[in-house]
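Reading a protein record of the kind used here takes only a little practice. An example makes this concrete, so a full record is given next.
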Amino acid sequence: MAEAKGRVIVALDVPREKKALELVELLLPLTPYFKVGLELYHHAGPPVVRKIRERGGRVFLDLKFHDIPNTAAGAARAAAASGAFMFNLHALGGEEMLRAAAGAAFEEARQRGMDPPLVLGVTVLTSMDGEGLRRVGVTRPLEEQVLELARLCRRCRLQGVVASPRETARLRRELGEDFLIVTPGIRPPGSERMDQKRVMTPREAVEAGADYLVIGRPVTAAPDPPAALKALLETLKPGKEGSDALPR
């Protein structure tokens, strides 16, 4: 299960630090990776990143910075200083913002003698579809929009992107094997889409070329989160189809 274990990031999208840390303790034997997003970060504050790290977890800081270059660079420095192994910012912030943030994160880590975090660009949120893009004035087809933003991120020397699994195969073909693709919008067979629109099963996403899968409510809201995650990881093992292996 080692290969699958390295792929899964559990989204701690909960409003209380106590609940988040309980989930970390429960799930650490199965994955070291946890996502801290806006909800938990605003309830618990920056110390929650340190507390997860102290327990042996690695944190994907999912705050999607999108601001003027100087402000985004300051936020990137703080993200690097927190010890998060990965953080993201909106690619729509543009080239100057992306370069400023990535450079600031690298320099902050260098000054502290730390490994620099992986910096990812968010392409198009998985809750959006083509019609949603058109309503905010984006006329380019959704897949083309994702690809162009990913190319921008690569030019700006980001290590990868956050994109839905629906675009992963094309991104992998166009941008190569050394470009990280992190995919939210992962739903086990039989689970509800909830507010996600562009989704795939875990195995489909991996086969399309995803490096990391971000999975939240199907695990964290399950009656037995470790059992749900273990069943999901089983579907990623070589030779497993997994369509009937997950609790429904």
User: Anything to note?
Assistant: The two ends are 22 Å apart (CA to CA).
